[in-house]
Amino acid sequence: MSIYKLLCFILLFASGFLHAQPEEYREIKQIVEQKCLSCHRTNGYAPFGLEKKDDWLKRKKFISYVIQQNIMPPWKADEHYRSFSNSKALNKHEKELLLKWLEADMPGMNVQLIQPTIFAQGSQVLRKPDLIVRMPKPFTVPGNNKNTYICYKIPYEIDQDTFVSGIEFIPGNKAVVHHASYQIIAVAPDVNMYGGPDYFVYDADTLNRVRDDHDYAYFNLIGEGNQMPIELYHNGWLPGTSAQVYPEKMGFYLPKKGVILIRNFHYSPTPVAQQDQSSFYLYFASSVPDRKIGFAAFKPKNPTPDGQWLIHANDSQFKSHINVRFHNDVSLLAINPHMHQLGKNFLAYAVTPAQDTIKLIHIPEWDHNWQEFYRFRTLIKISAGSVLHAEAEYDNSSKNPENPFSPPKDILFEWGMNEESEMMRLVLLYLPYANGDETVSLE
């Protein structure tokens, strides 16, 4: 072979990816759409978008670095223990493909958007919401460098009762909104939902107490015959949470007159006063769901065998447990572990009456800033008599970079929601079991 032909062959081989084959670019585009654009786009949760070629070019080295170091996309669950349908983790093939594409300056991608901008503002769902319910008035977060916790009432009215197959919480001010735990409730016909105040601020004595009798009365939501509101759906939003979208025939009832009550709305410390007016996007079901989604939240009864409710300073191995027996067959859709800044790792599994172990989730390196409602790939059956076990470990030493105190100090456990307290929660979204649920895909 002549030197000329040899050089041509080498150049052709070396630059083969520079002229990206259509099928390679389609795969890359799919990876970016599924694992990057939900946050990295105009009005998304991330600080910059990745919709245009220029967005990638000017951050090329940075993007390559965070991919190589497994920093981005952020995904904290151990994929070897249990994989999930809303996973943003990159497998080895996807990482290699993206890094090679970046090195070649994104062949196949022109200056246009990598995906048409068809999201509603802040949304992760590829269609416009059918209903937007927004806080009626902005809330002013005080500029005192302290955490702020409120309970906020958002009434709404629509033309007729309907059903919902998807819901998203949309933070109005991403700089200060930390998390929100909310419920959708129906109220009696004689209730004036618009009467009474819009919110109250939790103080040190009420921070860890959700009291229906107080809260419903405070917001004028109890009917004349002492008719209490009825909870129809319960969920939450934390940093990193995916949109809650369910398959056909799964969802929840939405009355034409109701309230979204944010029972615990946490704003991060800020040195200057800031305003927030967050929203909920609701997506109506195309047909009447015959499976109602349930919500269950568990916490430890005793954090340690001796009932100690403190995580002592410099204790790097404090552990807590949750043990719950199921009395009925259920099918799990999603799981959400929760701890605060001292969290170290979290493990949850179920043991059946036949002593089989069902792996649910393992988070080996807890990150308070990235949490998720992890959605299973298929419905997971948990049979009656099974016991759910959850184990959480905490690090209250100076070796924990997230420790809010230096030097470390004793921290209350299960006694509040501020930076001077820790907690353990395990939330499940579930359905009553039906034959064949094990084959129902949640992809």
Features:
Jelly Rolls, alpha+beta, globular, 443 residues, disordered N terminus, 6-stranded mixed beta sheet, 13% helix, 5-stranded antiparallel beta sheet
Explain what you see:
It is a single chain. The chain has 443 residues and is α+β, with helices and mostly antiparallel strands. The chain folds into three domains: 3-103, no CATH class; 131-291, Sandwich (Jelly Rolls); 295-439, Jelly Rolls (Sandwich), CATH 2.60.120.230. Helices cover 13% and strands 33% of the residues. Strands 1, 4, 8, 9, 12 and 13 form a six-stranded mixed β-sheet that branches. A hairpin with a 5-residue loop joins β18 and β19. α4 (60-68) runs antiparallel to α5 (92-103). It is globular. The protein starts with a helix and ends in an 11-residue tail after the last strand.
Average of pLDDT:
87
As a percent range, the share of helical residues equals 10-25%
Number of helices: 6
Largest sheet: 6 strands, mixed
Morphology: globular
Strand content: 25-35%
- Poorly predicted regions are 3-20
Q: What's the structural domain tally?
A: 3
Q: Could you give the distance between the termini?
A: 52 Å
Please compute the radius of gyration using only Cα atoms: 24 Å
Number of DSSP-assigned strands: 24
Q: What's the CATH first level of the largest domain?
A: Mainly Beta
In the CATH classification, which architecture of the largest domain applies?
Sandwich
Strand pairing plus helix content: what structural class?
alpha+beta
Give helix and strand order, one letter per element, not per position. HHHHHEEEEEEHEEEEEEEEEEEEEEEEEE
CATH topology of the largest domain: Jelly Rolls
